[in-house]
C-alpha cells in the first residue's frame, strides 16, 4: 500500500476555502491524501462555509482555523495555495514539498454586497463546487505527490 500524500491547503485566514479543501480531501480522498489546512493568519471558521459544506454532505464543523505554526507537523509532500495572498506569502517549509497554486475566488468577499442570504450562499456554493472538482482531480496517490501541477 502506497503512503498517503501529505497535503497542506493554505489560504490567508483558514476560514473558508482551505477549510473546504481539507474537508473534501478527508471525505473524498481518505485513502490517498492526508489533508491539513492552515492560514497565514487565523480568522475563525466561517459559518457559511460550514453550512454549504454540510449541504454537500461534508461536516467541517469540527475543524478549527489555525496558522501554519499551529500545525501538528511541518513536512508536507504538497502545499496548495488557494489564494493569491497565501501564494505570495507562503512560509518556508522544510523538506521536499512541492508548491501548487490553485486560486479560487473568496466567497466572503463575493458575498459582501449580496442583498439576501440566498444570494450570498450562491457564491459559497459555486466556490465549494470548484474546490470539490479540484480535490477530486488532484493528482498523486503516493508520497511525493506525483502527477503534474
Secondary structure layout:
Blueprint: E1 5-11, H1 17-28, E2 33-39, H2 47-55, E3 78-81, H3 84-88, E4 98-101, H4 107-111, H5 117-137
Helix pairs in contact: 1-5, 2-5
Describe it.
The protein is α/β, with parallel strands linked by helices. The chain has a single domain (5-137), classed as 3-Layer(aba) Sandwich (Rossmann fold). Helix content is 35%, strand content 15%. The chain has five helices and four strands, in the order βαβαβαβαα. A four-stranded parallel sheet has the order 2-1-3-4. Strand 3, helix 3 (84-88) and strand 4 (98-101) form a beta-alpha-beta unit. The longest helix is centred in the last third of the chain and has 21 residues, at 117-137. 40% of the residues are buried.
Amino acid at each position: 500500500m502506497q503512503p498517503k500524500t501529505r497535503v497542506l491547503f493554505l489560504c490567508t485566514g483558514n476560514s473558508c476555502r482551505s477549510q473546504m479543501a481539507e474537508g473534501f480531501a478527508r471525505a473524498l480522498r481518505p485513502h490517498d491524501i492526508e489533508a491539513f489546512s492552515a492560514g497565514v493568519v487565523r480568522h475563525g471558521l466561517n459559518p457559511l462555509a460550514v453550512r454549504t459544506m454540510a449541504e454537500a454532505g461534508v461536516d467541517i464543523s469540527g475543524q478549527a482555523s489555525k496558522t501554519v505554526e499551529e500545525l501538528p507537523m511541518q513536512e508536507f509532500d504538497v502545499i496548495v495555495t488557494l489564494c493569491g495572498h497565501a501564494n505570495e506569502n507562503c512560509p518556508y517549509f522544510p523538506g521536499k514539498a512541492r508548491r501548487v497554486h490553485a486560486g479560487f475566488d473568496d466567497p466572503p468577499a463575493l458575498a459582501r454586497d449580496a442583498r439576501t442570504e440566498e444570494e450570498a450562499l450562491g457564491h459559497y456554493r459555486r466556490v465549494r463546487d470548484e474546490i470539490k472538482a479540484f480535490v477530486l482531480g488532484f493528482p498523486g496517490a503516493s508520497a511525493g505527490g506525483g502527477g503534474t501541477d
